[in-house]
Amino acid sequence: MSIEVSWERDDYSRVPYRLYHDPQVYAEEMARIFRGPTWNYLCLEAEIANPGDFRTVWIGDTPVVVSRATAAAGSAIHAFVNRCSHRGAQIVRKTHGNAQEHVCIYHRWCYRTDGELIGIPFRRGLKGEGGMPRDFDMAGASPRRLKVANVSGMLFGTFSDQSEPIEDYLGEFGMGMVRRFFHKPITILGYSRQLIRGNWKLYAENLRDTYHASLLHEFFVTYGVDRATQKGGVKMDARHRHNMNHAYTATDTQEDAKAAYAGTAGVKLDRMRLRDTKLLQHTPEFADRMNLAGPTFFPNCIIIQINHSMGTRQIRPKGVDGVEIFQTLFGFADDTPEMTRHRLLSANLVGPAGFVSMEDGEAIEIIQKSTLNEPEAANIIEMGGRGPITDLDHRVTETPVRGFWSYWAELMGVEAPGGVR
Amino acid sequence: MKVPDVIRHAASDLMAEYGLLIDEDRLEDWVELFAEDCDYKVVTRENVEQGLPNILIWCDNKDMLRDRIASYRDVNEYNLHWDRHIIGLPRFCGEAAGVWTLEASYSLFQTDLEGASRLFSAGRYRIEFRMDGEAARIKTATVIADTGLIPTLLASPI
Ligand code: FES
Ligand SMILES: [Fe+2]
Fold this sequence. Notes:
The structure holds 2 protein chains of 2 kinds.
Chain A: H1 23-34, E1 40-44, E2 53-59, E3 62-68, E4 77-81, E5 96-98, E6 102-103, E7 110-111, E8 117-119, E9 145-151, E10 154-158, H2 166-181, E11 186-196, H3 200-208, H4 210-216, H5 218-222, E12 232-236, E13 243-248, H6 254-261, E14 290-297, E15 301-306, E16 309-317, E17 323-332, H7 337-346, H8 358-370, H9 399-412
Antiparallel strand pairs in A: 1-10, 2-3, 2-5, 3-4, 4-9, 6-7, 7-8, 9-10, 11-17, 12-13, 13-14, 14-15, 15-16, 16-17
Helix pairs in contact in A: 3-9
Chain B: H1 5-23, H2 27-31, E1 34-44, H3 45-49, E2 57-59, H4 62-74, E3 81-87, E4 91-96, E5 99-112, E6 117-132, E7 135-145, E8 149-151
Parallel strand pairs in B: 1-7
Antiparallel strand pairs in B: 1-2, 3-5, 4-5, 5-6, 6-7
The structure holds FE2/S2 (inorganic) cluster and fe (ii) ion.
């Protein structure tokens, strides 16, 4: 099976709407991207701190168990497909927990905490009758495993043995950003989930579209959390598959911003004031003094910091026209109770009800809705320029979106002839 | 538990107003059901059961609640919809120093502007209120949503 795409431009500045709607494209993506030579964010090591701890996650449309093996099984971290080798039932049904072994409820096949199949009831039959054939290869029948990489406590997994080493995959910039966030022990503050009725790529693009940030998310501008006039920009890895939108605290003036946004319909700069401003209190806590950082890793992850709220998000495709955003909010283990309270109050900014994030759900759904009828029509991605894909020290750009498509096309085997990379 | 009739009636009026004011999009009036030192929080059952403190919405005083509503009115973009709350009978949990605690189940439907309805959220309220003259005023309202998988986004209050 393979798909065909006729790109109107070799710089991916035109993307046909079919790619958000075609079930065959979706099926191919699951195989070539999520089960292909990419590293996917699994979960955080802090979530499975003790031997026997596990969490169930989704990599593309594949259910996966991330498990810290029991001491007897070696205590290492493993990830395996959450599907019983016998008849395909889900092995682990909880979202998280601690177990000595995992037993499928249907016929009680038993799995070690590293995913190895170790028990089959009545394997030798009863009183010499029934049972599995003598030559049945139990070890060979274990569920498929992912290779796991642990970068400073952030766990990534890949299904392919063709994947680059994680250091090369994330690149210097990606590795550096993971280390920045996880430079000391963290604590998990909790989860949020959101189901958006749109294709997963609309969310992936949204994270690479810095153009929309201060326009759609008007709260940013109205209350001065983030404005395109602040010092900031977009960084990408060498292959332009990952990116980061970032900005530095208090690097513009109210006058700069007023001049820049003058006449932009719908942006009410400084028209309103918060009655209670503690939500916006920010004291730089990282050496780089960024108040906004969002390193986004192809294909399924972003680490997001807005002021003092920090979280990871796992992008979980749910069919061609749905995507779950699973967010894990965290703080640092040495946070004072006041800081924890402040991080939780700052969580008002992010997540499904976030002052500066709720809009994305709506923006994605209204694209999905209105693009179904004309599959060969295409969108326009030219903000920030055409042609080559490069880093920028401003944020009035959609160039990283073209970076996403160029790598997507490579993995899907449908690069434009002479396409930019 | 033994609850004086006047408290029961006030609580029942409070919950009726609570749901209908949101459903009628009279959010500024809804805010007035709260005391100045109120606390309004939306959390999910998934977090509560794990003992995790994450919030979806948290206003730890009435000004923050006013800010939420002002932002909803003038700043945020969201799915255009009508809300419809169905709130179950309250269960009284206790009283201490004039503050009564009750719990009630809710289901919240959202209907889009073309008339399609969906179940948006199911869960329970835990509400602490005290009497202010004839009426009950909310001191804390905690929405514990069973529906942790938020459909689309959460903008108008539950
Ligand atoms: S399906 Fe799991 S044991 Fe039969
Ligand atoms: Fe956004």
